[in-house]
Every structure is written in C-alpha cells, then in structure tokens.
Amino acid sequence: MNTTVSPTASGASTARRRLLDTATRLFYTEGIRAVGVDRIIAEAGVAKATFYNHFPSKDDLVLAYVNEQDRIGRDAVSALPEQRPPEMIAAVMGRISEAVVAGGWRGCPFLNAAAEYPDPKSPVRQAIDARRAWYHGVLRDLLQADGDPTPSVTASLLVALSDGLLEAAYLDDPAAVPALVGEALKRLLVRP
Amino acid sequence: MNTTVSPTASGASTARRRLLDTATRLFYTEGIRAVGVDRIIAEAGVAKATFYNHFPSKDDLVLAYVNEQDRIGRDAVSALPEQRPPEMIAAVMGRISEAVVAGGWRGCPFLNAAAEYPDPKSPVRQAIDARRAWYHGVLRDLLQADGDPTPSVTASLLVALSDGLLEAAYLDDPAAVPALVGEALKRLLVRP
DNA sequence: TCCTATTCAGACAGGTCTGTCTATTTGCAG
DNA sequence: CTGCAAATAGACAGACCTGTCTGAATAGGA
Question: Do A179 and B34 touch (CB under 8 A)?
C-alpha cells in the first residue's frame, strides 16, 4: 500500500478524466456507436496507448460513462434537502425540469444507451437495470411513507412518466415539460 | 402509364419486400448502426446491386423502415371499431399492452431510432416528429370530444406515459405493463 | 541523480463499413 | 424468338473501426 499519497493520486489522473469527459460529451450528443476511439482520444488530447492503459476496451469506457451518469444522479438526489414525502417526491421529479431547461438535452442517457445495447446481460444493460431499480425504489419508499396504498404501482407510473417526459423534452418541446411534471404529480398521486 | 398490370407490379417487388422485412427485423432487434448492409442483403438473399437499385443509400432503407412502422401503427388505429371517446382512448392505449405481451419487445422503434439519429433535421427524425404529432393529435381530439378541459395537456401526459411504459416493457417487466396502462388511464383522465 | 511509471505520436494489423462497378443470368412481354 | 428490365455473384475502392505495439519523451519521488 502507499505510505504517501501523490498529488495526482488523490484524484483520478487528468488523462483519464479528460477521456471520460470527452467521451461523455460525444456519446451523449452523437450516440455511442457513432463515436470512435480515435475521435475521443483526439479531442481529449490523449495518446491511444494511454487510452487503452486506462480502459481495456471501448465498452469499458462506455460502462464508465453510464456508471458516472448514474452516480451523478444519485448524488443529486442524496443532496436534496430533507423534507416531507410529498415535497421530496416533487423535488426528485423536479430534477427532470432542471435537466431539461438547461438546453442541449438529447434524451435520457440511459434510454439512449439501452437502445444501442440490446443484450440484457451486457454490463451496460446491467448498470441501466441497477439505475432503474434504484430510481423506482426511491419513489416507492417515499410513496409508502406518504401513505400511498399501492406505492410500487404508483412508483412504476412515476418512472414511466419520468422516462416519457425526458423523451418529450428531447423530441417535442422542452419548455412545456416543467408544467407537465407538475400536472402529472397532481394527477398521479392518490391522496389517501 | 401502364395499360396492363404485371402480377408483380400490383405489389412491391419481392426483392424490395424481403429487404425491408429483413432490415426491420435486424434494425429493431439489434439497432440500426449495428446492422450493416452486407448482413441485410445476405439474410434477405438479395444481391448488393439490387439493394442499391431499390434504396439509394442505407439511410433510405432506414427511413423506409421507420415510415412503415408508422404506417402500420396508424392503420391499426384506423381499424379500431368506432366507439365513444373514453373507450376509444382505452383502445388506443391498449395497443401498448398488445405490442408488449407478444414477446420479443425491444422498446419503441421510434425512440430507439431517435437515439441513433441526433440531427433533428434528418429525414428519419422528421418522420419521427410526424409520428409523434399524429399520436398526440389523435389523443388530443379524443380528449376534447370527451370534454377534457385541457385536452392538449392530458394528451401530452398520455404520450409520455405511452413512451415510458413502452420503455418499461423493454427494460423492466413487460407483464406488469397492461395493468399499469389501465391504472394510468384511471388516474390521468380528469372526469368533468 | 536515478528510477519508475506515465504519457506521447503514430505505425500497423485485421476487420467492417458504405457504395460502385463488371459481367452474367434470369424471366417476362411482345 | 427477341429484347429489355431486373436480379445475380462478387470484386473493388476508400474510409473507418478497435486494439496492439514500438520507441521516445516526460515528470515526480527516493
């Protein structure tokens, strides 16, 4: 083990970080299969050998991309101020509006990745499965605490609404989405 | 113009039909970029020159694929028996359940294609836009006839629910979707 | 200063991609 | 039978793909 921690060892190496940042931008805006390794290393300013030193294959980079997006989302939910279940549900769903009004929205990165990874046993799909299970679980627990008689069913509906509104923000009108989030919550949550 | 109609001219040529059928199956189950022209012509049993005789480029085949899926969906809705608006809405949304329980569901072909076509000006994306506008319009008109005070908003929510449930059938549990469709309708439709 | 790990640029292999082209064969209409 | 339109197999070009490898340059810690 290390007795001293080098300055760079406290965080990820800058080469790896630049690769992941560049890949995230390109994968998200243009699609995963559409972006080659040569393009990523060129725009990241990293040599090819360095790339394959950090990521054994392109699929490992894709997996790192998906996992990081997942982690960012979970951290954002963890960082939400504590509040009572109804407000907490609204805050969790409100992240949709925030993501969408920022501009440059190109759809849910998980749904986009799933469209390009048909094999449900692939690591990318497993990561997406875990992400979806986490999101459903967060909503289900909040709904249960709120006294919803069928929290799992309502959670499934909220997950579907989330996915659908994220796609609507990509393919239809992003500006209309925040109001739709509020309207959906009003109608889907059964008041006990 | 033709004075006599040859037997094959009454329908599309069999080569073109086989190409489109094969492409539909492969594009849907494996993804568009993931399937090459060589593979399509091999499985369709068609020569390469014949392929490029029917479709100037691969993208034209993709467009034909998306357009045909669109036409099939519209025809299915047109073929629904006439009934009063609430039942008609349930019937339109019920197509989700039918599509999903059949097995082999790999997500909404339009959302999957949109994930691989980032340029909103591309013909494929334009076709997807038209499809979405049609679907929203169908629901909006039915809701208006049903006396919904905000038919466009409700229609947007139903479109989002449709998209989300189609993705849930792909990524989560298809068997759970039919019940969710019914539950969503119960909660989203505002009774005047 | 030396050592070790990292990074660099870029060639290279082997495969796949789309699209073009040649040259032959098939099949139907007149 | 003749002629034309369409389909055939397959080579080919040029680009791009992932992944490997070579050999040199760089930088920070002991």
Answer: no
Q: Could you give the CA distance from residue B114 to residue A66 in angstroms, rounded to a whole number?
A: 19
Judge: domain B58-188, CATH 1.10.357.10: yes
Which of B131, B163, B158, B130 is CA-nearest to residue B142?
A: B158
ipTM of the assembly? 0.93
* CATH, range A59-188: 1.10.357.10
Nearest CB among B107, B162, B179 relative to A164 is that of: B162
Among chain B residues, CA nearest to A109: B115
Residues B52-111: pLDDT tens digits?
A: 999 999 999 999 999 999 999 999 999 999 999 999 999 999 999 999 999 899 999 999
pLDDT the model gives residue A191: 62
**How many CB atoms lie under 10 A from the CB of residue B64?**
18
| CATH H-level superfamily of B12-55 | Homeodomain-like (1.10.10.60)
Mutation target vs B (from A29, A117, A121, A167; most B CBs, 10 A cutoff): A167
Give me the residue label for tokens 């999957």.
B112
